[in-house]
Amino acid sequence: MELLKVENTARAGSYDIEIGSGLIAAAGEKLGRFIPKHDKTVVVSDENVFRLYGERVMASLAKAGADTAAVIIPPGEASKTLKQLEAIYDLFGDIGLKRGGLVIALGGGVVGDIAGLAAATWMRGVPLVQLPTTLLAQVDSSVGGKTAIDTSSGKNMVGVFSRPAAVLADTETLSTLPLREYASGMAEVIKYGAIASAGLFERLESLNAGAAGEDIIAACCGIKADIVSEDEFDTGKRQLLNFGHTFGHALETKYGFTKYTHGEAVAQGMVIAAAVGESAGITPKGTADRILRLTLAQGLPAPETDITDLARYISHDKKSTADSVSLVLIRGIGAAVIHNVKFGEAGALLASAQTVIRSEAKR
Ligand code: NAD
Ligand code: GLY
């Protein structure tokens, strides 16, 4: 069992992240102090996750005295909509959830993001606990308080920062996760090594595919907790968590979010960002190849053969201004930096990155 704390150096309060096996069955006991005595405890989940873990969590909460109800949404990114958010509000109303209640997000990043937003805005804010069930949610989305839905303008366009009251990451749930989703989470795990820990990256290089344990999940949460503690509201250092995401997001946008999972796109984005860094003289030669080998070993795809057209999708990035985008590059494995690039330069950078990737792949 691993226990971490997320604080903000400039703002009072903190929350715990507990990581271990069997935490869902122990949710009632673990969350005792957050369970309201005179109000509802509402579990928000998706159909897949609730079918697998709903009964376990509801029974555990009821045993701890919670007056429970469940709101179940269809699985997948298509559920992160205003329409689905409204449906959740309607169900909160039908259930009789009041401000003194508790919302529990049981699922991956989709459930965490929309349930987080629903809780943060229902009656101006109800406490939320995250019970993440995907690797991606356990190492990333359940920590840090970002909540969101997508709109026709793009992904995660509407949301608020709202800290969870607690995070319980039950590693047992990863045993039922489809392999593709597991690999997708591994892309974020690799990202933490690439931006902040050469030691973690080396450990991952010596692992077999799909073998992230409690200690690795805790290492990732520790890195994210440190970054979020310093920059909760994403105005500086938190942007380093976007390594691989600018190009990854460009790929997702290019294919209308259908061809690649988020992690598959980020894996390619990290190789591209390292190659961009190499051609700009910021990243040591051979780094893109090292990231590529690690992502391939985890069942993630290599970058597409022609990446030059990604330049046209980069201006959609939330971190962009009218004429430029903040790219996260690395000075080496474990050391990330922000590098500003004008949109006009992006095409040439991507063309050089493509040459780097091709020449390193031939070695
Ligand atoms: P997801 O929530 O869609 O889950 C992936 C699939 O796995 C779904 O079909 C789900 O039903 C299923 N599933 C979940 N847990 C399972 C389990 N234990 N066993 C079997 N099936 C299971 O996807 P995700 O990758 O977890 O999250 C992606 C979302 O997270 C995106 O919307 C992204 O924008 C968001 N995100 C948010 C943050 C943040 O800081 N808030 C960070 C990263 C990503
Ligand atoms: N996943 C990026 C962030 O939390 O800031």
Characterize the structure shown:
The protein is of the alpha/beta class and 363 residues long. It has two domains: 2-176, Rossmann fold (3-Layer(aba) Sandwich), CATH 3.40.50; 179-361, Dehydroquinate synthase-like, alpha domain. The protein is built from twelve helices and eleven strands. The protein has helices at 27-30, 47-63, 82-95, 109-121, 135-141, 179-196, 198-205, 214-230, 245-254, 262-279, 287-297, 343-362; strands at residues 2-8, 11-20, 40-46, 67-73, 102-107, 128-132, 149-151, 154-158, 166-170, 324-332, 335-342. The structure holds nicotinamide-adenine-dinucleotide and glycine (GLY). Glycine is lined by residues 140, 144, 146, 234, 238, 241.
Topology (elements, then pairings):
Blueprint: E1 2-8, E2 11-20, H1 27-30, E3 40-46, H2 47-63, E4 67-73, H3 82-95, E5 102-107, H4 109-121, E6 128-132, H5 135-141, E7 149-151, E8 154-158, E9 166-170, H6 179-196, H7 198-205, H8 214-230, H9 245-254, H10 262-279, H11 287-297, E10 324-332, E11 335-342, H12 343-362
Helix pairs in contact: 3-4, 5-6, 5-8, 6-7, 6-8, 6-10, 9-10, 10-11, 10-12
The structure holds nicotinamide-adenine-dinucleotide and glycine.
